[in-house]
Design brief:
The protein has helices at about 35-40, 40-55, 120-130, 185-195, 235-250, 275-285, 315-330, 335-345, 350-365, 425-440; strands at about 60-65, 70, 75-80, 90-95, 135-140, 155, 170-175, 200, 210-215, 215-225, 225-230, 250-255, 260, 265-270, 270-275, 375, 385-390, 400-410, 410-420. It has about 450 residues and is of the alpha+beta class. Mean pLDDT is about 85; it is low at about 15-20.
């Protein structure tokens, strides 16, 4: 066999660059480091805007570095902010703390923070549609800066913005910062305390749903970290709460709900259409299947996936990444819930057969990019659940697989497919367990 190297033929290696995310040459590419960003006027302006917001919010104070304390690093994160249609909107620079270097019990304590459940979002949207209430999205600028810290956290000064008079000083944080382990919890507590003071109370079933009820006036606030949906029974009530929230937080009204958590919301004559087509396209591109043939169904019903099917997968991290991404895609795609649940069972030790099953799901998604979830105005007095169970369907554990869907009026608001936690001795027992699971969820 003759190779090119035997004849002295070679091609120069071109390193693959991840720094450019948008093809338009007029848009500055993503910088590789802060020094490169500071040399670009667009990115420098974005960094200056972020730094000014930090200073205005009194996020830290410069102090001499104490002895024997843990000082965490800070980093600049850059990205192109895009619109719901994928077009460039603006340059985004964010200063984050390196929470990985925090020490539990020293500069961080409790870190858990609730986020709104998908079923809660769909329920509130259904109620708003049935009553023709306005649905608006709010944007909180530098949301985590509003959370007060109860622990003492020291951080190095940000690169490019060190105080020339005190270059050796460190930042003693007074407000939470992105990247800190306790940042989401501090912001949630700060927001929850304020909305409680203006008459809201959080739902007992979902602590990220805040409800206001006074006579005939009703309002809902859905909180997912720094993304907020405000639903009010009248425009005057909405404007009143917008004014109150804007007086306390750096917040603006983005108008009627159109893009939330990566989900495009399209209004039509009949109601709302929720779609994740852009997100689905990104998953397919990440898997390298942008030009693949589509599949008519997401799963092969003739066989069950076993933990020992095939040989170990060569790239387990890619499998886990794609399976996790597909889980979020089920927010608007109940048709792939069972197939995604099956491939997610093997994320800890994926085999070749599992990868083939995952790729089949992706090929199905490739052919159904326009699919999504429709919500229509309908009466909301009736809640109907449908359940089913595959008795002993798991070939490894012989446990049953449960599935249910819940309708509020004519709108599908909740669904699930999961393996039951215990063995069932009969199909009837498996079905009763599923009914219990559907009602408890």
């Amino acid at each position: 066999m003759t190779t090119r190297s035997m004849h002295g033929i070679s091609k120069p290696k071109k390193p693959f660059s991840l720094s450019v995310s948008i093809d338009d040459p007029s848009i500055s590419p993503l910088p590789r480091n802060p020094k490169q960003a500071l040399s670009d006027p667009n990115w420098k302006s974005a960094m200056q805007s972020e730094f000014n917001a930090l200073i205005r919010n009194n996020t830290w104070e410069l102090v001499p570095r104490p002895c024997d304390v843990n000082v965490i690093r800070c980093m600049w994160i850059f990205r192109h902010k895009k619109q719901s249609n994928g077009l460039f909107e603006r340059y985004k620079a964010r200063l984050v703390g390196d929470g990985r270097s925090q020490i539990a019990g020293v500069d961080c304590d409790e870190t858990f923070s609730p986020v709104v459940k998908p079923a809660t979002i769909r329920t509130v949207l259904s109620i708003a549609l049935s009553r023709s209430w306005p649905i608006h999205q709010l944007d909180v600028q530098n949301a985590f800066l509003h959370g007060d810290l109860h622990e003492t956290v020291y951080m190095h000064q940000p690169l490019g913005f060190r105080d020339p008079h005190h270059p050796d000083y460190v930042c003693r944080l007074k407000k939470s910062l992105y990247g800190l382990k306790q940042a989401p919890r501090a912001w949630y507590q700060r927001f929850a305390d304020y909305v409680s003071s203006i008459g809201f109370r959080h739902s007992t079933s979902d602590h990220s749903l805040f409800i206001f009820r006074q006579g005939s006036d009703i309002a809902y606030i859905l909180l997912y970290v720094d993304d907020i949906i405000l639903v009010a029974s009248s425009h005057d009530l909405r404007k009143s709460f917008m004014a109150l929230l804007a007086s306390e937080f750096a917040m603006k009204d983005l108008g009627p709900l159109s893009y939330f958590l990566g989900i495009a919301v399209t209004r039509h004559a009949g109601g709302l259409f929720l779609s994740q087509s852009t997100y689905a396209t990104e998953i397919i591109a990440r898997a390298g299947m942008a030009s693949c043939n589509s599949s008519a169904t997401p799963v092969d019903t003739k066989q069950k996936l076993s933990s020992s099917s095939g040989t170990p997968c060569e790239d387990a991290s890619l499998y886990g990444s794609l399976a996790g991404a597909l889980q979020y895609l089920t927010f608007t795609r109940p048709d792939i819930s069972y197939a995604v649940q099956q491939v997610c069972l093997h994320m800890h030790a994926p085999h070749t057969e599992h990868m083939l099953a995952l790729k089949r799901v992706l090929r199905y998604v490739r052919g159904t990019l326009t699919y999504g979830l429709h919500l229509y105005p309908s009466p909301v007095e009736k809640l109907v659940s449908y359940t089913d169970a595959d008795w002993g369907g798991c070939p490894d554990t012989r446990r049953s697989t449960s599935g249910y869907c819940v309708f509020l009026g004519d709108n599908l608001i909740s669904w699930s497919s999961k393996r039951q936690p215990t063995l069932s001795r009969s199909s009837a027992e498996a079905e009763y367990r599923e009914v219990a699971i559907a009602h408890s969820d």
